[in-house]
Structures are given as structure tokens and as C-alpha cells.
Amino acid sequence: MLSHVSAAPFVLKRDAHCVAFSRDGKLVAIAFSGQSNQQFPPGAHPNPRKCGVVQWFDVASKRRLQRKETFGDITRVAFSPDGRFVAASRLYTTLDGIGLNEVHVWQVATGKTEYIFDRCQAFTFSPSRDEILVTSRRRCVAYQLSDGTKIETFASLAGALSISCSPNGQRLAGVVTTKNEYWVRVI
To answer: Which terminal Cβ of the chain has fewer Cβ within 10 Å, N or C?
Structure first.
């Protein structure tokens, strides 16, 4: 039976929009959306209470391990299956209509940026391989996490709003739009 756990040690003054556990349950990541600094190129808002944030914590000690400031609407946060990386996806459009969506991948241990996938709106980690799959308006591509090598392109999931791997890593599913309708496509 699960016991009630308070979110207070993990969440500062705002509620988290996204949350994820590492596979071993020892870490938890949270993310919440925030404003930009109103400049171009945009950056995190100068007021820490108004910027978007991705953070990860040690569950046992409730100690924050890393805090990364960003901006825009954070739509997902997740740990890689091996626990080496944490990623977050962001949606953002400037007042001029320029889309600056991004999937950002950090090393869990150091907080160092490992990859930034510009103009990408969704991602998933492969549960059975050392890969991350990202989608943009025109592509869905699998990359090797160890060195960033492009592995494979999945044309039928191009533009997917969200994607997910099956637990065995053999199938992909994505929410795609066709003629203003939303469909789940499984390949």
C-alpha cells in the first residue's frame, strides 16, 4: 500500500507541470513552465520565480541535485533507462511566430548539457537501447545517446505531438495530426 507523500520538499512556490522518477526510484525530476526574458534570442526570465525550471532531486535525502533555468511550456521530463540522462521538452513561439521548441538533454551526475535538439517538440527514450527519439514538424529521428549519431528516421511519425516506445522497445507510437484530427499511429 502506498503512503501519502508530501510534495513540499520538491516543489518551491509553484506546482510542477511534469514529474518523472528514475528507473531505480532514487531520483525524481520536476519541471515547470516559465516566462522568457522578452529578448531575442529569448532566455530564462531574470526573476527566478518567473522562469521555467527543470530540477532533479535525491528522493532519500530530499536534496536538490541540479536546477536548470529555461522558458516556455515544459511538456515532458524523463530519465533515460540507465539513469545517466534527464531530458525535457519545451514549446515556445515568439511574438513574431518563430517556433523555438527544444528537447534538452542533461547529464544527471554533472548537470552538463549533453544534447540540444532545436525545433523538436517531443521525445522518448528507448527502453532497450541507448537511444533517444525526437520529433520535429518534419521528422522523427533516433539518435545514439553515447555519441549523438543519427541512427534511423521514422517518416510516419514526423510531426508527432508526443511519442512513446513500447516496454520492449520494438514498437513506437505517436500522436499525429491529419486534416485537423488527432490519430495515434503505431509502427
So the answer is: N
Domain 124-187 CATH assignment equals 2.40.10 = yes
Whether the link from the prior residue into 41 is cis, omega within 30° of 0, is yes
* Topology adopted by domain 1-118: Methylamine Dehydrogenase; Chain H (2.130.10)
Is the predicted pLDDT of residue 10 greater than 80, yes or no? no
Please give the Cα distance from 91 to 161 (Å, whole number). Answer: 11
State the average pLDDT over residues 171-186. 91
Domain boundaries, the chain: 1-118, 124-187
Using CA atoms, how far residue 74 sits from 52, 58, 62, 82, 168, in Å, is 8, 21, 23, 23, 27
